[in-house]
Amino acid sequence: QTEEGVSQIKTRAEDSKEHSLCKKVVRIREIKPHATTQIMKTTLLPLWLLFLAVTTVASQCRKYDRKQRRALKRQGWKRIWYDRFDKKLIKRNKWRHEINCAGGGNFEEQCYTDRPENAYTSNGFLHIVARQETWQGPAVDDDHPDYDPQDTSVRKDFTS
């Protein structure tokens, strides 16, 4: 369009009831072609390249995993157990929580709990979280003959 045509559009837009909408239309028309190219170079191109990189890496990981499984099978290895951690809760038929403040044989300063704050699954991963908080629990491991789940004789400053 000519300069005269653009100024007529601007004048009509100012007189219109839909002033703000028309103003936006005029602004869009005033964008120069090289500005659009610049937007694509600075914003869309990097996003597109990032998308390509992520999808390429993800597909390579899947290929590597398949190759690794095949190689292990050829060498005589056999998978006997696994967990995908695809449920919200930890599968109690596959996992057991240790519940005590015994110290694990190496003087750990934490109590083991079965609370969801300390162990949960998310996005296909098992998360075991140590938290700084005071907790009380049994003084011995749960396989010890003197184990009592109601025992609160030991207090520690961390849980996991």
What are the main properties of this structure?
single chain; 160 residues; alpha+beta; 2 domains; two-stranded antiparallel sheet; 4 strands; 13% strand
Q: How many strand elements?
A: 4
Name the strands of the widest sheet in spatial order: 1-2
The number of helical elements comes to 3
How many independent structural domains?
2
Low-confidence stretches: 5-11, 21-26
Q: Give me the Rg, rounded.
A: 32 Å
Largest sheet: 2 strands, antiparallel
Question: What's the shape?
Answer: flat
| Secondary-structure element pattern, one letter each | HHHEEEE
Strand content: 5-15%
Estimated structural class: alpha+beta
Mean pLDDT: 77
Helix content: 40-55%
Distance between the termini: 70 Å
Short structural summary:
The protein has 160 residues and is an alpha+beta fold.
Plain-language structure description:
- The chain contains three helices and four strands.
- Helix 1 packs antiparallel against helix 2 (19-30).
- The N and C termini lie far apart (70 Å).
- It folds into two domains: 3-74, no CATH class; 81-160, no CATH class.
- By secondary structure, the chain is α+β, with helices and mostly antiparallel strands.
- The strands form two sheets. Strands 1-2 form a two-stranded antiparallel ribbon.
- The relative contact order is 0.09.
Strands, helices and their partners?
Layout: H1 3-15, H2 19-30, H3 33-74, E1 119-122, E2 125-128, E3 131-137, E4 154-159
Antiparallel strand pairs: 1-2, 3-4
